[in-house]
Automatic annotation (TrEMBL):
It comes from the Eukaryota. PROSITE patterns: CYTOCHROME_P450. Its cofactor is heme. This is Cytochrome P450 oxidoreductase.
Length: 523
């Protein structure tokens, strides 16, 4: 007699349950013992639930005592300085884990550098566009950045006049968004000019996209089901990018050559125009048409949130540490005096003043210490950068891990490693990087553990864009305004200094930082 449908179903369920149990038991005995939540022994659910929420829930708000922490089956967070080169070094055989696949557009493999897991394909893709992100290439966009600086200064001047309370983190993200828009598409997206409106809801869409990908990537097998249930969160940002790219292409000449949206920029081409030139020089197999949109979207996703949140962190650290604030102010003052830059003052308003160039900002030694210490304590990303061990496994942090295990280092953890940064590793102290106060050996050791932009061959390709935006804006804001922090309702108090709560969906953000500003007294 043939088995009934019910018998077949029960047999399948039994096989599934038994198979799952056997797999978990094998994993338990094959993988090293390590501290971590009990639930993380048998399921990735615990880690998935931690990924989306307050940063304190993901264990990154303070250093952990153990070098190895299990956050899920076959998923280990490592806090060992010696492991950085082993995991992320240029010659490391460890590929990106399946977590990154969630950040791609469904059905299209290897469409951007971030989600491409195959190292050889990543190398080829990066080689094609690396020169577009070189510091020499990025410096050519200084006028684009200056335009956006003038826009945000105009808004902040108005806030200073009226005493208006505003969200500092939101406006700094607006600035970052408009800069990356101008560099990529040749025009600002319009956040600053619109008074801080979320144009086409793109900020909210990108935040939702990042949260979705970070959570679903924990168990990539669930991606098809999640897309079916929740829809594809990349559609909104992708449509936005196509719309902006299309509008820019409408400005092209009939023969296909491009014109700049502003003649004052001369021969400076937008990022999209440079990508179009690459496409024209390569075969369709080497550079597909869709790569233009995917690279443009990657610029927007990676270049707005990360720069905006870093700007917020830098400014908060300066303004909540009076000694740091005063030393930086004096450095700016000395810089202006040395270069004979005149500040014209009339009715307590600055009518004209040269903006500080990127090279000049980088020549301010104390400012660079402040910036580096901020990115140590508040790197943009707050989750481990997962890598898969190859067949045969590897020794990491003195422990053997079998092949197929995923391991990663969280910059929020390694940057607070007391064996490297000292017992005060959790404190903001720019002087720790001062080469005149520490030995070359200690400085090299700290630099070796400093990974705010990642490490090895997968270092963030757009870091020069972010550094340009930050170095040009921060000195202007600190020289021009006094910032009064208005306590939002969700502050965590540390002594007398308010510390806003952070959210972590891969990007670690301080949100709703409400401030009032006043024009600084010009000496």
């Amino acid at each position: 007699m043939a088995p009934s449908v019910r018998q077949v179903l029960w047999s399948l369920v039994t096989v599934f349950v038994v198979g799952t149990v056997v797999t978990k038991i094998r994993m338990f005995f094959r993988h090293p013992a390590a501290p971590g939540p009990k639930l993380a022994l048998v399921t990735r659910l615990w880690y998935a639930l931690q990924v989306w929420g307050a940063i304190s829930r993901t264990g990154t708000s303070k250093p952990i005592a153990d070098m190895i922490v299990r956050v899920a089956p076959s998923l280990y967070s490592i806090d060992d300085p010696e492991a950085i080169k082993v995991i992320y070094g240029v010659k490391s055989p460890m590929a990106k884990s399946s977590w990154y696949s969630a950040f791609g557009v469904p059905g299209i493999p290897n469409q951007n550098l971030f989600c491409t897991r195959d190292q050889s394909k990543h190398t080829i893709m990066r080689r094609k566009v690396a020169h577009l992100y070189s510091m020499t290439s990025i410096k050519a966009y200084k006028s684009h950045v200056d335009d956006c600086i003038q826009l945000i200064l105009d808004k902040f001047d108005r806030f200073a006049e009226t005493g208006h309370t505003f969200s500092l983190d939101h406006w700094l993200q607006c600035y970052a968004f408009d800069v990356i828009g101008k560099i990529t598409f040749g025009k600002t997206i319009g956040f600053l000019e619109s008074g801080g409106k979320d144009i086409s809801g793109i900020m909210k869409s990108l935040d939702s996209l990042t949260s979705f990908c970070s959570v679903v990537g924990v168990n990539i097998a669930l991606l098809p089901l999640c897309l079916l249930v929740f829809g594809d969160p990349s559609k909104g940002p992708m449509a936005f990018t196509k719309e902006i790219t299309g509008k820019r292409e409408d400005d092209n000449l009939g023969d296909g050559s491009s014109i700049s949206t502003d003649a004052s920029y001369g021969d400076v081409k937008t990022f999209v125009q440079k990508l179009e030139k690459l496409r024209a020089e390569m075969s369709p197999q080497e550079f597909e048409d869709c790569r233009i949109e995917y690279n443009a979207l990657t610029n927007v996703v990676a270049g707005s949130d990360t720069t905006g949140l870093t700007l917020t962190a830098v400014l908060l650290n300066i303004c909540t540490h009076p000694t740091v604030h005063e030393k930086f102010r004096q450095e700016i003052k000395i810089y202006h005096e040395r270069r004979n830059n005149e500040i014209v003052v009339q009715d307590k308003r600055v009518e004209a003043r040269p903006t500080i160039t990127f090279d000049q900002a980088q020549s301010m030694p104390y400012f660079q210490l402040v910036l580096k210490e901020t990115m140590r304590l508040h790197p943009a990303t707050g989750l481990p950068l997962w890598r898969d061990l190859p067949q045969g496994g590897a020794m990491i942090a003195g422990t053997f891990f079998p092949g197929g295990t995923s391991i990663g280092i969280n910059s929020w953890v390694i940057h607070r490693n007391t064996s490297v940064f000292g017992n005060d590793a959790s404190l903001f102290r720019p002087e720790r990087w001062d080469p005149s106060l520490i030995s070359n050996e200690d400085l090299a050791r700290m630099d070796g553990c400093y990974i705010p932009f990642g490490a090895g061959a997968r270092t963030c390709i757009g870091k020069n864009v972010s550094l340009l935006e930050i170095n040009k804006l921060i000195p202007e804001l600190v020289a021009r305004y006094e910032f009064d922090l208005i306590s939002p309702p969700d502050l965590v108090w540390q002594g007398q200094k308010p510390e806003p709560k952070k959210t972590n969906n891969f990007f670690v953000k301080r949100k709703d930082i409400m401030v009032k500003i006043r024009r600084a007294q010009v000496a």
